[in-house]
Amino acid sequence: xxxxxxxxxxxxxxxxxxxxxxxxxxxxxxxxxxxxxxxxxxxxxxxxxxxxxxxxxxxxxxxxxxxxxxxxxxxxxxxxxxxxxxxxxxxxxxxxxxxxxxxxxxxxxxxxxxxxxxxxxxxxxxxxxxxxxxxxxxxxxxxxxxxxxxxxxxxxxxxxxxxxxxx
Length: 167
Description:
Layout: H1 2-9, E1 12-20, E2 23-30, E3 33-43, E4 48-51, H2 55-59, H3 64-72, E5 96-97, E6 103-104, H4 112-130, H5 134-166
Antiparallel strand pairs: 1-2, 2-3, 3-4, 5-6
Helix pairs in contact: 1-3, 4-5
């Protein structure tokens, strides 16, 4: 669900239509489908966004339109007020209450979706810089291929280690 929205957000276009202090209003649409334009209002003072699609209000997770604007505004960490407990791995565990009686969001166990989103954001930033020239492309593709090999080796090593533990 969230992951699908995030992946779709990458192919969406945006246009800033209004700016007033910390609030910026954007139109967001799918590149090949300009008839369906959504309006997103982003407030940088508290890192909030409201979308005319209202997926967060109805389903409890952010839509591709808001996620697109978070990418544009370089919001690298999903604000905790958008992480609803029912979507976390710890949903069945009891609440953690702070000294003021407020429920706290545990941030020591990031969900797979959040780590995936961070990796995608980093990859997008690398691809953006790496595509600026032929020379940058050649350097970037070599580094990415080496990184992939290192990740595959680490993954294989972890798999071997977990098999030893299970014997």
